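Section 3.1: Structural characterization of target chains.
Under the original work plan, the team committed to producing a structural model for every single-chain target entering the pipeline before any wet-lab resources were allocated. The record below documents one such target. The sequence was received from the expression subgroup and is listed exactly as submitted; it comprises 171 residues.
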Amino acid sequence: MLRCLQPQRLTQATLAAAVLGLFSIGAHAEQAAPAMPQSVDETPFASEREAVIWRQDELKDLERLLRQLRFDLVNNQDAQGAAPRLAELQEKATQAHFLPAFIAGTHGRGSDAKPEIWEEWDQFATGFTDLEQKVSTLVEAAEQEDYRAATRAFSEVGLSCRSCHRAYRYD
């Protein structure tokens, strides 16, 4: 699993994703989606199976994190208590974190991913950009301790997740 890899490999992959993003910004007036990884060699993973298991685990962890944040922000109205989880959400709910695990062709048996991810790569990647923006709005509302705005933003984050899951994940 990726968690067992040396931190340098993940850091290099994150750096590579950031560099790719910078090149795409420089090359185009509009920001293009990061390139789809065509093989495991373009990722920090040792195998396609490892990438599939990692992304499934990470998405489940993100779901658990969101449940904890709902409790912190909506139920308890505790922005200070939510701060570490918000930072983790901002770090993980990104293109740079997830897209390297979506290696071309890693759908089918053992994966919840629909082939439409790779057929509609730009739209799929844009979904992460949308999620990143909605998470930023949530973080800003929490930092201002505006719990009404945080509740609305939290709902928007959830809608972003559900719309992507409907389009790109088997139930």
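Residues 48-75 form the longest helix (28 residues).
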